[in-house]
Amino acid sequence: MTRKLRKLFFLFILMRKHYAHEFISLNDHLFSGRKESMQNDLWFGKYRIQKELKRHEDTIVYLAEHISLHSLCILKKIDKKSPLCKGLYQEAKILSSLHHASIPCVFDFIETENFTCLILQYLPGKTLLSVCQSIELSEKLILSYAILLCDILKYLHSQKQPVLHLDIKPSNLLISESELYLIDFGNAIRKSDIRKDFLGTKWFAPPEQYEQSILDERSDIYAFGMVLYYMVFGQEYTRRKGENIEENNRCSKELSAVINRCLMLKKTIRYSSIVEIKKRLLQIQQKQNKTGEGKSAAIYTVSGSQRHIGCTHFAMKLCKFLKFQYGNCLYIESNPTCAVRDMLTENGRLNSDGIYEYEGIPMLPFYEGRILSDEMLSKYKHIVYDYGVLSEENREGFLKGKHCFSVVGAKDWELTNSKQQLILLRNSKVIYLANFITTKEQAKLLRTMNLQIERLPYESYTLTGKTSETMKLLRDIL
Fold it and tell me: Which reaction does it catalyse (predicted)?
């Protein structure tokens, strides 16, 4: 070997020894704060990172997959030099002692030279924050979610050494269908623990957390009241702390009273326990259910002047709106085209009661000889019947609706069918809607038809967002 080659060879050996830790401690290298693509990186030989969920100061939260079990999990990593590292150990210790379906389980706790990592059960769903930002919750739904949260807090507060979460807020609550989960126990403590550092989130934390006073179950009750307020008003508390909520059209007086008492600045005036709150919420819920007993479902009917005019599209929009507003709605396909039946067969989920579910909407497809039993329909307070193209045969059934919607066309080649629709519905109380038209075409249609016709916005039937034009239109109409 020449002198030059030997020199290069020994230089390579020295570099290899010097940087050996970078090859061995690959995970440490991956956990450095730099942003990079991690889709193919394997941590601890078993976790593949899917995406970064959250980054705050020295903490990063990832969604990962266990490669052997093919199951999702949460990786919460904190730099070992961070003062928050001790809190992660405390979180792992508390969570490992809890066993509740609505609280994440601890899968693993790993420490390396440079970081500490907590691996948690992945819980599905959207945060209550995102849900409240996209829709207005009905009081019925608010009560349902609040009672579920009461059950979780009752479990925490009734431990042999009571657990205080101390960071209850909409972004730490997950909603998945009819389930609610409480996550992020980073601020949680045992009631007997003494912590002098500030904990919690602005607006949601009670005064005693700012004042470094003694914390107890009533500290969580204050945050619970703030969550109730957020669900009702869709925003953070806008009043001076301690100021009561006056009468409003967003919730009942009874629910307002619960919120006011939870948010008392002096914790001695608040509810003494979450059990007391749940009892009151159940009383409100039972009273509202009793008021609704004996009332038949509100019937909404939809028809179109011709095929492909957007009748079913609007019917599904209407279902989404009704579910958002009241938490309960059923779609029934009442026309023999069977387009919805075909869609549900491919993409719907069939429940044990014979009703499909698609995009969160309970749906009943059309079948020859189908029987709509009272037992099947009794649990729905709002039912939308999609009659398809209006005809002499289905006109009578269509007009039985409490709210009847007729979707018509405004293009020149659609006007004949639209006028025929008007003849069939002469002198009937029908809400006319025009699809796929501009405001200019709407004005022309008003002149041609000589009646009030609303323009349907160009939007997906999913109706995401409080600012949805369809949401606003339906709220004005209904």
Answer: L-threonyl-[protein] + ATP = O-phospho-L-threonyl-[protein] + ADP + H(+); L-seryl-[protein] + ATP = O-phospho-L-seryl-[protein] + ADP + H(+)
Element (H, E) at 151: helix 139-157
Homologous superfamily (CATH) of 298-477 is P-loop containing nucleotide triphosphate hydrolases (3.40.50.300)
- CATH T-level fold of 22-121: Phosphorylase Kinase; domain 1 (3.30.200)
Q: Name which of 218, 212, 219 is nearest 195 in CA terms.
A: 212
- Per-domain boundaries in the chain: 22-121, 126-292, 298-477
Q: Would you state the structure tokens that stand for residue 50, as one six-digit string?
A: 């899917």
Q: Which residues have CB under 8 Å from 178's CB, separation 6+?
A: 144
35-87 tens-digit pLDDT: 444 555 778 888 999 999 988 778 899 999 988 888 899 999 998 888 778 88
Among 185, 280, 264, 159, which residue's Cα sits nearest to residue 219? 264
Q: pLDDT of 451-467, one tens digit each?
A: 777 878 776 655 544 44
Classified as helix, coil or strand, 303 is strand
Residue 40 DSSP SS3? coil
CATH code assigned to 126-292: 1.10.510.10
SS3 474: helix
